[in-house]
Amino acid sequence: MGGSTTRSLGLDVGDKRIGIALSDPGGILASPLTIIERRNEKQDIESIADIISQYQVEKVVVGLPRSLNGSLGEQAEKVRSFIHEFCAQTGATVEFRDERLTTVAAQRLLRAATTKKSKKKVRDDAAAAALILQGYLDEVRM
Predict the structure, then answer these.
(1) What is the CATH number of the domain that holds 74?
(2) pLDDT at 5 over 60
Protein backbone atom coordinates (compact mmCIF):
# COMPACT_ATOMS: atom_id res chain seq x y z
CA MET A 1 0.00 0.00 0.00
CA GLY A 2 1.24 3.46 -0.86
CA GLY A 3 1.39 6.44 1.41
CA SER A 4 -1.37 8.36 -0.31
CA THR A 5 -3.29 10.77 1.84
CA THR A 6 -6.83 11.69 0.97
CA ARG A 7 -8.66 13.60 3.63
CA SER A 8 -12.39 14.06 3.47
CA LEU A 9 -14.54 16.61 5.26
CA GLY A 10 -18.03 15.83 6.57
CA LEU A 11 -20.66 18.55 6.85
CA ASP A 12 -23.91 18.53 8.78
CA VAL A 13 -25.54 21.76 7.53
CA GLY A 14 -28.23 23.24 9.75
CA ASP A 15 -29.96 26.60 9.97
CA LYS A 16 -27.98 27.74 13.03
CA ARG A 17 -24.78 25.67 12.88
CA ILE A 18 -22.68 23.60 10.52
CA GLY A 19 -21.11 20.56 12.12
CA ILE A 20 -17.75 19.63 10.64
CA ALA A 21 -15.86 16.36 10.80
CA LEU A 22 -12.50 15.41 9.31
CA SER A 23 -11.10 12.07 8.23
CA ASP A 24 -7.60 10.94 9.10
CA PRO A 25 -5.02 11.24 6.26
CA GLY A 26 -5.59 7.60 5.32
CA GLY A 27 -9.32 8.16 4.84
CA ILE A 28 -10.28 5.51 7.39
CA LEU A 29 -11.58 7.27 10.51
CA ALA A 30 -13.84 10.32 10.84
CA SER A 31 -13.63 12.54 13.90
CA PRO A 32 -15.68 15.58 14.94
CA LEU A 33 -13.63 18.69 14.19
CA THR A 34 -15.57 21.86 14.92
CA ILE A 35 -18.79 23.78 14.55
CA ILE A 36 -19.40 26.92 12.55
CA GLU A 37 -22.05 29.19 13.98
CA ARG A 38 -23.99 30.37 10.92
CA ARG A 39 -23.64 34.08 10.15
CA ASN A 40 -24.20 34.56 6.45
CA GLU A 41 -23.65 32.38 3.40
CA LYS A 42 -20.48 34.17 2.28
CA GLN A 43 -18.75 33.91 5.69
CA ASP A 44 -19.94 30.32 6.20
CA ILE A 45 -18.50 29.26 2.82
CA GLU A 46 -15.22 31.09 3.53
CA SER A 47 -14.92 29.33 6.91
CA ILE A 48 -15.38 25.90 5.31
CA ALA A 49 -12.99 26.80 2.46
CA ASP A 50 -10.34 27.78 5.05
CA ILE A 51 -10.67 24.37 6.73
CA ILE A 52 -10.42 22.60 3.35
CA SER A 53 -7.23 24.51 2.61
CA GLN A 54 -5.75 24.03 6.08
CA TYR A 55 -6.25 20.25 6.06
CA GLN A 56 -5.77 19.71 2.29
CA VAL A 57 -9.19 18.11 1.95
CA GLU A 58 -9.95 16.40 -1.36
CA LYS A 59 -13.63 15.55 -0.94
CA VAL A 60 -16.54 17.03 1.01
CA VAL A 61 -19.32 14.70 2.16
CA VAL A 62 -22.57 16.50 2.98
CA GLY A 63 -25.49 15.07 4.91
CA LEU A 64 -28.75 15.51 3.04
CA PRO A 65 -31.71 15.48 5.43
CA ARG A 66 -34.34 13.31 3.77
CA SER A 67 -37.77 12.66 5.25
CA LEU A 68 -38.28 9.20 6.75
CA ASN A 69 -40.07 8.20 3.52
CA GLY A 70 -36.95 9.20 1.54
CA SER A 71 -38.32 12.38 -0.04
CA LEU A 72 -36.50 15.72 0.00
CA GLY A 73 -38.18 18.30 2.19
CA GLU A 74 -37.63 22.00 2.82
CA GLN A 75 -34.46 21.50 4.90
CA ALA A 76 -32.89 19.29 2.21
CA GLU A 77 -33.57 21.99 -0.38
CA LYS A 78 -31.88 24.59 1.88
CA VAL A 79 -28.83 22.32 2.18
CA ARG A 80 -28.70 21.71 -1.58
CA SER A 81 -28.98 25.43 -2.30
CA PHE A 82 -26.15 26.25 0.16
CA ILE A 83 -23.93 23.49 -1.24
CA HIS A 84 -24.63 24.58 -4.83
CA GLU A 85 -23.33 28.07 -3.94
CA PHE A 86 -20.44 26.52 -1.96
CA CYS A 87 -19.36 24.47 -5.01
CA ALA A 88 -19.70 27.47 -7.32
CA GLN A 89 -17.38 29.52 -5.09
CA THR A 90 -14.85 26.85 -4.10
CA GLY A 91 -14.84 24.26 -6.88
CA ALA A 92 -14.88 21.58 -4.17
CA THR A 93 -15.77 17.98 -4.97
CA VAL A 94 -18.95 17.21 -3.02
CA GLU A 95 -20.93 14.05 -2.43
CA PHE A 96 -24.30 13.93 -0.67
CA ARG A 97 -25.16 11.24 1.90
CA ASP A 98 -28.54 10.38 3.36
CA GLU A 99 -28.36 11.64 6.92
CA ARG A 100 -31.64 10.34 8.30
CA LEU A 101 -31.31 9.64 12.02
CA THR A 102 -27.63 10.66 12.29
CA THR A 103 -28.34 13.45 14.80
CA VAL A 104 -30.26 11.01 17.02
CA ALA A 105 -27.44 8.46 16.72
CA ALA A 106 -24.86 11.18 17.48
CA GLN A 107 -26.72 12.22 20.63
CA ARG A 108 -26.82 8.60 21.82
CA LEU A 109 -23.11 8.10 21.11
CA LEU A 110 -22.20 11.31 22.92
CA ARG A 111 -24.25 10.37 25.97
CA ALA A 112 -22.56 6.97 26.05
CA ALA A 113 -19.07 8.44 25.55
CA THR A 114 -19.29 11.41 27.91
CA THR A 115 -17.58 10.73 31.20
CA LYS A 116 -16.85 12.89 34.20
CA LYS A 117 -13.22 12.98 33.10
CA SER A 118 -13.92 14.29 29.60
CA LYS A 119 -12.83 17.90 29.50
CA LYS A 120 -14.00 18.69 26.00
CA LYS A 121 -17.60 18.13 25.01
CA VAL A 122 -18.36 17.77 21.33
CA ARG A 123 -21.58 19.28 20.07
CA ASP A 124 -24.18 17.05 18.42
CA ASP A 125 -23.65 18.79 15.06
CA ALA A 126 -19.97 17.85 14.78
CA ALA A 127 -20.68 14.30 15.97
CA ALA A 128 -23.46 13.98 13.37
CA ALA A 129 -21.01 15.19 10.70
CA ALA A 130 -18.56 12.50 11.85
CA LEU A 131 -21.24 9.80 11.53
CA ILE A 132 -22.12 11.00 8.02
CA LEU A 133 -18.47 11.01 7.00
CA GLN A 134 -17.72 7.65 8.65
CA GLY A 135 -20.58 6.04 6.75
CA TYR A 136 -19.11 7.33 3.50
CA LEU A 137 -15.55 6.22 4.39
CA ASP A 138 -16.75 2.73 5.30
CA GLU A 139 -18.70 2.45 2.05
CA VAL A 140 -15.84 3.49 -0.25
CA ARG A 141 -13.42 1.08 1.43
CA MET A 142 -15.66 -1.96 0.80
Answers:
(1) 3.30.420.140
(2) yes
